[in-house]
Amino acid sequence: MTSAPWPAPFAATPLDATVTIPASKSLTNRYLVLAAVADGVCRLRAPLASRDSDLMIQALRALGAGIQEVPGSGPVPDLVVTPIPAGHCVDASVDCGLAGTVMRFVPPLAALLSGEVSFDGDPAARVRPMAPIVAALAGLGVKVSDGADGLMPFTVHGTGTVRGGHVAIDAAGSSQFISAILLVAARFTQGLHLEHTGESVPSVDHISMTVQVLRSLGVTVDDSTPKHWIVAPGPIAAFDVVLEQDLSNAGPFLAAALASRGTVRIPNWPLNTTQVGDKWREILPQFGATVSLDDGVLTVTGGPEILGVDIADTSELAPSAAALCALATGPSRLRGIAHLRGHETDRLAALVAEINALGGNAVETPDGLIINPAPLHGGVFHSYEDHRMATAGAIIGLAVPGVTVEDIATTAKTMPAFPQMWADMVAQTTVTEA
Ligand SMILES: O=C(O)C1=C[C@@H](OP(=O)(O)O)[C@@H](O)[C@H](O)C1
Ligand SMILES: C=C(OP(=O)(O)O)C(=O)O
């Protein structure tokens, strides 16, 4: 079900706003999976509450984890997770929605249980690549039925243990294939030696996040040889963590400073983080912004114009970056993002179609986008059920009058409050100037 067309707020004057961002999807869903296989009861403080995290919670409950909401110190309840009992028997169906983290991370966990777990999701999820997960499970001695086409739906037939050992996959389509197997590998009888056989793995920061989270819980991971990850069998310590805010989802708000030639501040920016969104601090100056991090507050001020850029490996930051490229005064190139064709939608095709529909000049390359300057006009920016397409439309709408985002509610995938947060950000400026 899609929401009513959303007239994107236009910033008639430079923004001057402070914004607080909800918790990281990638960290929340990693910690949820790890809590389900940890050595004791775990607590996630200030986690993300969104469609993707809800889908993960439902999936883990279906597999036998106990997950309780308890009051926390902020607006979102904490989650207390009782792990899945050893040798648990299960017969379950998992709805993955459109969540890559659910459709990739949960099947290897299901393989550790006794019984059948079927996986399916939204129609758009049924075309997202899954073959390396199916191949990895088969290589680890786990039976999977109906996944021969490398797509959902399929069923994992667990026997209560996974042998583990060496397995080779081509993870060029998504870093999540690697993260998925690593997350539960310490529970495999022989541990894991995972090898990537393809050219290069995308979104390497997300793999580093997985490795660092595992190490923080006492899991031994050797990633010293490129394209190889070795996980020793052993315990996964119970934990109590406070989730960082989602620095990728901070992107549209920071981009708003550039789109309006104003200033946006985000407090509580983590000083040491594994999130790819920390790269905004390197990326936004290339677009002409001034960026500073003082006392944990990230402040971004837009320059007099948005400069064209040539940037590689922006991963999930690419749609927000592409929106800025569409507003830039010079030509831009985004490289190393071919795998975005397998995200919530084919993001390269979608960005080209929507930017060009507003009068822009964007073309696909084999591994990314070229976006040349062109005067934009109002019109409908389609979302393709993709939260980051919807927020890209919002960024452009700040600078171009008359942009309407079709289905802004799709931002609920990772940030259900986005429309209100965006309106509040624009309203802060109005209040300041009144
Ligand atoms: O592991 C994760 O949490 C993610 C990994 C990345 O996937 P890809 O490697 O498919 O880009 C990223 O784009 C996605 O939003 C989240
Ligand atoms: C690619 C993304 O999501 P997913 O976790 O569904 O892969 C994303 O959030 O940009």
From TrEMBL:
PROSITE patterns linked: EPSP_SYNTHASE_1, EPSP_SYNTHASE_2
Arranged from A to Z, the UniProt key words for this protein are: Amino-acid biosynthesis, Aromatic amino acid biosynthesis, Cytoplasm, Transferase
Oligomer and partners: Monomer.
Originating species: Arthrobacter alpinus
Q: Name one GO molecular function term.
A: 3-phosphoshikimate 1-carboxyvinyltransferase activity
Q: Which domain of life does this protein belong to?
A: Bacteria
User: Which reaction equation describes what this protein catalyses?
Assistant: 3-phosphoshikimate + phosphoenolpyruvate = 5-O-(1-carboxyvinyl)-3-phosphoshikimate + phosphate
EC number(s) on record? 2.5.1.19
| Span of domain Enolpyruvate transferase | 13-420
From the Swiss-Prot or TrEMBL record, state where the protein is found: Cytoplasm
Residues annotated for phosphoenolpyruvate binding in this entry: 25, 100, 128, 176, 347, 388, 413
Tagged with keyword Amino-acid biosynthesis: yes
Database matches in InterPro entries: Enolpyruvate_Tfrase_dom (IPR001986), Enolpyruvate_Tfrase_sf (IPR036968), EPSP_synthase (IPR006264), EPSP_synthase_CS (IPR023193), RNA3'P_cycl/enolpyr_Trfase_a/b (IPR013792)
What name is this protein filed under? Answer: 3-phosphoshikimate 1-carboxyvinyltransferase
Q: Does the keyword Thylakoid apply?
A: no
**Active site residues of this protein:** 316 (proton acceptor)
Q: What class of enzyme is it?
A: transferase
Report the GO terms under cellular component.
cytoplasm
